[in-house]
Write a structure and sequence with these properties.
With 217 residues, the protein is α+β, with helices and mostly antiparallel strands. It is 48% helix and 7% strand. A 4-stranded mixed β-sheet has the order 2-1-3-4, with helices on one face. The structure holds glutathione (GSH). The site of glutathione has 15 residues, from helix 3 and helix 4.
């Protein structure tokens, strides 16, 4: 058995696909279209009771959910891919910090942006919820731009010239909530990181398939 990835175009499953590609691992895909809410169908609730993607079934049949846990598990299972610096190193701590920020702070804003009606019984509140989610998500990305130590140039990744697992969520999430236009126009260092990730030989086809390319304003 190989890995089985539950996901959809442009969703968080893109991150898992990229990590597996960097690790050189074959993967089978199970499409769960968010359009039409197929993630909430009983079939998928049996995979993830919260009705979310990505989910990853490991070759032994174990089901994993939560993008952060999935990404770290892929890195740990394939140490030869060198997706993370050694345990205990400052570089690894830095990678974990920014991955946790994206999963814990940024991703929930995306849920509010995608599904604002879940967050108030008053349908009229939805546009305001969506607008705040977008702004608060952008605040997180502004923090990345200003404080993650991104340098651009020939050292565009979070850890400088060295690509790591942390670059994947930073790049992919920089494209969400209008980010394919907003990030290139506003956050040059994060945009350089995203472009460098999208240009990696193992990732370029996935980057394109998930429509992550920048869209000019
Ligand atoms: N905490 C989860 C969040 C996953 C998530 O929100 N995924 C989105 C797609 S990018 C989703 O499945 N949304 C459907 C829904 O909330 O109904 C993770 O990090 O994996």
């Amino acid at each position: 058995m190989t890995y089985l990835l539950y996901g959809d175009i442009g969703s968080g499953s893109a991150m898992v696909e990229m990590a597996l590609a960097e690790a050189g691992q074959p993967v089978e895909h199970r499409r769960v279209p968010l359009e039409g809410d197929h993630q909430l169908a009983p079939e998928h609730l049996a995979v993830n009771p919260l009705g979310r993607i990505p989910a990853l079934r490991l070759p032994d049949g174990t089901l994993l959910t939560e993008s952060l846990a999935i990404l770290l598990t892929v890195a740990e299972r394939h140490p030869e891919a060198d997706l993370l610096p050694p345990p205990g190193s400052i570089e690894r701590a830095t990678a974990l910090r920014w991955m946790a920020l994206m999963a814990g702070e940024f991703y929930p804003h995306v849920t509010r942006w995608d599904y604002p009606r879940r967050f108030s019984p008053d349908p009229a509140a939805a546009p305001g919820i969506r607008a705040r989610a977008e702004e608060m998500g952008r605040d997180v990305l502004r923090v990345v731009e200003a404080h993650a130590g991104l340098r651009g140039g020939d050292a565009p990744f979070l850890l400088g010239a060295r690509f790591s697992l942390a670059d994947i969520p930073l790049a992919v999430m920089s494209r969400w909530m209008g980010g394919r236009t907003w990030t290139p126009a506003n956050l040059p260092r994060l945009e350089a990181l995203a472009r460098a990730v999208g240009a990696r030989p193992a990732l370029a086809p996935i980057w394109r398939a998930h429509r992550m390319d920048a869209v000019p304003a």
